[in-house]
From TrEMBL, chain A:
Residues 2-82 form the Carrier domain. It comes from the Bacteria. Gene3D superfamilies: ACP-like (1.10.1200.10). It comes from Streptomyces triticagri. This is Acyl carrier protein. InterPro entries: ACP-like_sf, PP-bd_ACP. Pfam families: PP-binding.
TrEMBL record, chain B:
Residues 225-314 form the Beta-ketoacyl-[acyl-carrier-protein] synthase III C-terminal domain. GO terms for biological process: secondary metabolite biosynthetic process. GO terms for molecular function: acyltransferase activity, transferring groups other than amino-acyl groups. This is 3-oxoacyl-ACP synthase. Coiled coil: none annotated. It comes from the Bacteria. It comes from Streptomyces triticagri. It holds the Pfam family ACP_syn_III_C. The keyword Acyltransferase applies. Signal peptide: none annotated. Keywords: Acyltransferase, Transferase.
Amino acid sequence: MTDRQEVISAIEKGLAEVLERQLPDITEDTRLFDDLRLDSSSVLELLLLVEDSTSAAVDPETLDIDHLRTVRSFADYVEGLLAAEEGRT
Amino acid sequence: MAATAVSTLERVESYLPERSLRIEELAEHLGLRRAALGVFRKFYGLDRLRFDPDLPLSDLLRPAARAALATLPDGAHVSYLIYAHTTQAVAPPDVEVAQALRADLGLESAEAFALSQQACVSSLGAIDVAGELLRADGDPDAYALMVTGEKAYSPVVQHVPNTAIMADAAAACLVTLDGRGDRVRSFVTRTLGEYAEWLELTPEQNTEFGERYGARIAEVINQALAEAGLALDDVELVIPHNVNLLAWRQTIKELDVPAEKVFLDNVPRYSHTFASDVFVNYTTLRDEGRLTDGAHYVLVSVGLGATFGAMVVTHHRPGEPQT
């Protein structure tokens, strides 16, 4: 079981890699596109990195970019994937 | 010949260089991180592509053009050779590709010129222009040859951020009026000049362009169908450009059609080949026996700049009576 803080840490770690710079302070309200100026590809890169460091499995067919707009919605989405994963095992 | 004569696609041919790579083999060449390539593979649906830097442009263009020309009936002649391309500079400044191609194909009596203003929609646009020129001339034995094909000659051209990894391919389409081939029922384009900066858009513009991409494609498809007097249900298949699966998943949702209605098999095989995709995909479908006589198809592409284009055609096999 990965808790919320681990998911947030995975997002922070992924963000540092995608942005290639030290992160400003982020909160769950931080907006990935508007505040951090990620584009659609870099948000997906972040998702791949978080997928790698947790056991979440993203289905590209059902992905909705709206899930990835803020740190909160991103973490909710990843937690949802992890819960679904646990339900299957 | 009546000014209302219908443009017909008499023969479509395509050509792909043999050298096939996995996208990961381009990581260093394109300066792409592992995660960025992972995005292209997992979310954009890319796998392999054709890319041969050693193949001269003339050798890329020749096979499909010659194959299409070989079907020209006795007594007919080619009045126009139109070279349609996406990148404005495809050759050194002292080489005029359309003129070189005319000489290479032995089409000295044809008027040859190039079109690139609609980027990856230029090939569909060239077919529209060919029809208009032939209608203006009124010569019943006249044909036009549209040739498309260009090389991903630089990383700047090959990697379109957030969008595509471009690859090599070529295609040709022999066009006449009221012939026995596929009938062009409508052609619609929408150009949005606010994206004229191509690869220099702001992150906000890129995001907005990406988010509205599917809706805008759906718009031109629906408009082209309306002009053809058809509905989406009447269409056998949408034959799209191979930009990526993410964009087409979005478009399929906008169109509210089953995913099978859009032919996407070639995205992981060939990736986006500039203005050639639609014709490469057409020949794949034809060679697999998947084009039905009398059925309607929508050819769709999007060009940077940005132009959204859709052409509705009714397929006719050679030798089958027209309906």
